[in-house]
Amino acid sequence: MSINLIKSESKFLERSRIALTNASEHAEINPTLTSFGMDATKLAEGVEVYNNAKLVWELNQKEDSETEIASNSYKASFNELKSIFKRHRDYVLIFFKKQPDVLSSLGVKGRFPAKYNQFFDKVKQFYGTIQSNVLLQTELDKIKITSVIVADCLAKLNTLLTERAKYDKELGESQDATKSKDAALMELKEWMDDFDAIAKIALYDQPQLLEVLGIFVRS
């Protein structure tokens, strides 16, 4: 939904609620609107549209919050493992400088992986290769990349993969909720546009009552 259409969704929802409430309960406004066709049945229709929009909007807020939490957790785990892997990668590039075959087997030749899926693959190759090669592990013990550290890094990778999957799931749900929210708010806006048009005509000579409905007319 365009930000220019509804600048503040929560403000728009509250204004709609107040307008519908006052249209139903205000002693002067209600009978006047009723005489122009905006009767109890029509207002009940508006309340239903509002309630749906409010419910869907709240769900979207919840999904956005869950996505942010999942994102923060994933980013923290990613940055932690990235820092560890970068250090270990630099160590072996120095230590095995004269052994290009070892560097190839560890997957450390070339640039540091830029994309997250490439990063996952390189981390798996690096620590997996070390873990499966006793002789290589013995050499790396000399520079403090021990079997315990290797196992811990692989465990961190598994945790990271799980967190990435959760983040992707939450992101997808949030995007779906946003689409539903936008559609519901658009439906409410269209209904309120019609309501405002009737109200402006019915209360044309009573601008102070229009203000009770949240409609401000320039004098």
Give a short summary of the structure:
With 219 residues, this protein is mainly alpha-helical.
Name its key features.
219 residues, mainly alpha, 8 helices, 79% helix, rod-shaped, disordered N terminus
Listing every helix as H and every strand as E from the N terminus to the C terminus, the arrangement reads: HHHHHHHH
Oligomer: single chain
Give the helix tally.
8
Count of discrete domains: 1
Terminal residue distance: 31 Å
Number of β-strand runs = 0
| Structural class estimated from helices and strands | mainly alpha
The whole-number mean of residue pLDDT values reads 95
Strand content: under 5%
The profile of the biggest β sheet is: none
Percent range for helical residues? over 70%
Query: Radius of gyration in whole Å, from Cα?
Result: 30 Å
List the helices and strands and how they pair.
Blueprint: H1 9-25, H2 29-35, H3 40-95, H4 100-106, H5 116-131, H6 134-141, H7 147-202, H8 207-212
Helix pairs in contact: 1-3, 3-7, 5-7
Tell me what the structure shows.
It contains eight helices and no strands. The chain has 219 residues and is mainly alpha-helical. The protein is rod-shaped, with a radius of gyration of 30 Å.
